[in-house]
Specification:
The chain has 3 domains: 48-183, Rossmann fold (3-Layer(aba) Sandwich); 213-308, Rossmann fold, CATH 3.40.50; 332-487, Rossmann fold (3-Layer(aba) Sandwich). The chain is 47% helix and 13% strand. It contains 19 helices and 16 strands. The strands form 4 sheets. Strands 1-13-12-11-14-15 form a 6-stranded mixed sheet, sandwiched between helices. A 4-stranded parallel sheet has the order 4-3-5-6, with helices on both faces. Helix 15 links the parallel strand 12 and strand 13 (392-396). The longest helix has 26 residues, at 311-336.
Length: 493
């Protein structure tokens, strides 16, 4: 079949980088001039896989089954994190009885690698269909399957023809080319997943428009509480949110072309797809920040309101919600004003969290982000207005050894991000993610502010841990430059 959307490789974007370091102003200026170049890391501690993000985007969809055409090790590693998060998600939304996701592997072995694995894939798909009776079967490729040349598109076509002939078994089969070597940017996996939904599920469907409906394309890390908070805020200005793809139903997917507006909750998770929807269905869109912190939430609401002609309603809501949290924000700010902070988070969440730091009067020393894309140029400008232009930006997909080294040298007053190894340094720390309570919106401003306050007031555990546990790395490493293994291009920073 002819694809409506071709595979997107984010690495080809101008000024894309997942290996770089420098002051914010320097990186931004090079990105603006289209001359920000990737560096080379001679040692890497880890990297996130494209396949994992495709799984994260699709595995929670209702009435589906995911067949991963890969060795067991590959599919097992990817499925573990995805399924674990789904279970947490179901629990916190009070739906422990909700259907489980269905993931099955073709378990490629030596025989299939030598002779081809398409027959084994077909047998696995048949077992998955008979066991789960799904509406959609996603067939995910892998590095191994692609290297041996297995044609998952042809398999999908054969299986769809087979089951279309059976009464009551009209099943859609959707191949996803999410091989790990396709891209260093795991956001590519999300692009591939959304393209698959359009190419093989929605196809050419043109449902009637639903007044006030807005599609929100969100990452799998978005909690149920944050989904509900976004729905609440948008309802207050007269809009209905269709949040995709996480835990969406088949009906939710088919409503995508019916929406009046589109927005990508994270700047680069969904931005490619909403551009396609504009071209295909003439659906206007906005690409803006995550609504974390009062400044980012204001900007998020105003961007959507401008899109939908709801400016008056949005300003009234912003005024009301801001007034409701102002007194407690000022009380917390008395403890946090002037403190120095470092943070690490996914790119969109990290930029928004950096504005939250500003809400509480803190100074940003450094931020770690997995990648850089042109969509973030304006975000850098706003952060520089808030924190100055000399804060350090470490662009690295994972690489905790660099982060720990930096934190040992910076000695920040507080750290926001993955805190397991930071706790050993005795630094007050908190996580920006929460599956139970909202981190988005004005309620999130208070919740995260209270978490910062609590981390500062109750740091005895971290202090004791720093005294009685070994650091994550040898002392020799902390004496070295954090970027000793980074080779910058001659004409780069």
């Amino acid at each position: 079949m002819t694809k409506l959307i071709q595979d997107t490789i984010r690495d080809s974007h101008p000024s894309f980088a997942d290996v770089q370091v420098g002051k914010s102003c320097d990186l931004r200026e090079k990105a603006q001039g289209r001359c920000l170049k990737n560096a080379h890391r001679t040692f890497e501690q880890g990297i996130q896989c494209v396949q994992v993000n495709s799984m994260n985007a699709l595995f929670s969809l209702q009435d589906t089954v995911m067949v991963i055409h890969s060795p067991l090790g590959c599919s097992g590693c990817a499925a573990f994190g995805a399924i674990d998060r789904l279970n947490v998600y179901k629990h916190h939304r009070g739906r422990d009885d909700a259907p489980d996701s269905h993931v099955i592997s073709s378990a490629l072995g030596e025989k299939e690698v030598i002779l081809g694995g398409e027959k084994r894939l077909e047998e696995t798909i048949q077992k998955a269909v008979e066991r789960y009776n799904p509406k959609i079967v996603f067939i995910l490729s892998s590095c191994a399957a692609a290297i041996i040349g297995d044609d998952i598109d042809a398999v999908a076509e054969r299986m769809e023809k087979k089951y279309c002939r059976l009464e009551g078994r009209d099943i859609l089969f959707a191949p996803v080319h999410c091989e790990g070597f396709k891209s260093r940017n795991h956001a590519t996996g999300y692009d591939l997943a959304l393209a698959t939904l359009q190419n093989y599920v929605i196809r050419e469907a043109r449902p009637p428009k639903q007044k006030g409906l807005i599609n929100l394309f969100a990452t799998h890390s978005l909690s149920w509480a944050d989904q509900e908070e976004m729905k609440r805020m948008l309802k207050a200005i007269g809009l209905e949110a269709n949040i995709l793809p996480y835990n969406a139903s088949y009906e939710d997917i088919m409503k995508i072309p019916a929406a009046e507006y589109n927005i990508s909750v994270c700047q680069i998770f969904g931005d490619e797809y909403i551009k396609f929807l504009k071209e295909k269905y003439d659906i206007p869109y906005a690409v803006t920040c995550m609504p974390i912190g009062s400044q980012s939430t204001n900007r998020w609401l105003r961007a959507i309101a401008k899109l939908a002609g709801k400016e008056k309603e949005a300003e009234a809501f912003i005024e009301s919600e801001s007034a409701a949290v102002a007194e407690e924000v000022e009380a917390i700010k008395k403890k946090t004003d002037g403190l120095r902070a470092c943070l690490t988070a996914g790119t969109g969440r990290g930029f928004a969290a950096a504005t939250l730091i500003g809400d509480y009067g803190m100074k940003l020393l450094c931020m770690h982000t997995p990648y850089y894309d042109e969509a973030y140029i304006d975000d850098f400008k706003r952060l520089e207005e808030l924190h100055g232009s000399d804060f350090l930006v470490n662009i690295a997909d994972m690489q905790p050894y660099e982060q720990v080294n930096l934190l040992k040298k910076f000695k920040p007053d507080v750290f926001i991000g993955m805190s397991n190894w930071v706790s050993r340094l005795g630094i007050p720390s908190l996580h920006i993610l929460d599956s139970k309570r909202p981190t988005f919106g004005y309620r999130g401003v208070l919740y995260l502010g209270r978490k910062i306050e609590d981390a500062l007031d109750n740091n005895n555990f971290n202090k004791n841990l720093s005294q009685f546990s070994k650091n994550a790395y040898r002392e020799e490493w902390y004496k070295k430059d954090a970027f000793s293994y980074l080779q910058l291009p001659e004409d780069a920073l």
